[in-house]
Amino acid sequence: MTTLASGTDTLTRDALTVLQPGFTGTTAPDWLLRRLGEGLASVGLFGRNIASPDQLAALTAQLRAERDDVLVAIDEEGGDVTRLEVRSGSSFPGNHALGAVDDVELTRQVAHELGRRLAACGVNLNWAPSADVNSDPRNPVIGVRSFGADTALAARHTAAYVTGLQSAGVAACTKHFPGHGDTAVDSHHALPRIDVSADVLAERELAPFRAAIAAGTRAVMSAHILVPALDPDHPATLSRRILTGLLRGELGYDGLIVTDGMEMRAIAGTYGIERGSVLAVAAGADAICVGGGLADDATVLRLRDALVGAVRTGELPEERLADAAGRVRSLARWTGTAARPAEDPHGNEVGLRAARRALTVTPAPGLGSPEAFEPLTEPPYVAALTPVANIAVGDETPWGVAAELIHLLPGTVTGSFSAGEGPENEAGQHAGRAALEAAGQRRIVAVVRDEHRHPWMASALDALLAARPDTIVVEMGIPQAAPRGALHIATHGAARVCGRAAAEVIAGVTAR
Question: Can you give the pLDDT at residue 136?
Answer without folding.
Answer: 85
